[in-house]
Design brief:
It is built from 2 helices and no strands. The protein is an all-alpha fold and 82 residues long. It has one domain. Keywords: Membrane, Transmembrane, Transmembrane helix.
């Protein structure tokens, strides 16, 4: 596998598995922040605490899936060495 192909596949991996989910989580947290407080910027159709709970669950899910993918890549790397 050439170096440039590896770089392209790594960038594709980053955008697909890291950047996009964290952007979605960030947007959810911004919506929660904008919709909560004594003078909300926007009117939310759901309770801000419910949206915040969903955002926290998404963060935990993303952390767990990232750790699992790192663990899997380490296992794959050690299997190819032997």
């Amino acid at each position: 596998m050439s170096q440039s192909h590896r770089e392209r596949s790594f960038r594709s991996y980053l955008s697909r598995r890291v950047v996009v989910p964290w952007l979605v989580i960030g947007v959810l947290l911004l919506i929660v922040a904008a919709g909560s407080g004594s003078d909300p910027w926007i009117s939310l159709p759901v309770d801000p605490l419910l949206a915040l709970g969903v955002a926290h669950l998404l963060v935990l899910w993303k952390i767990l899936t990232t750790l699992q993918s790192i663990e899997q890549s380490i296992e794959d790397e050690t299997q190819t060495e032997y």
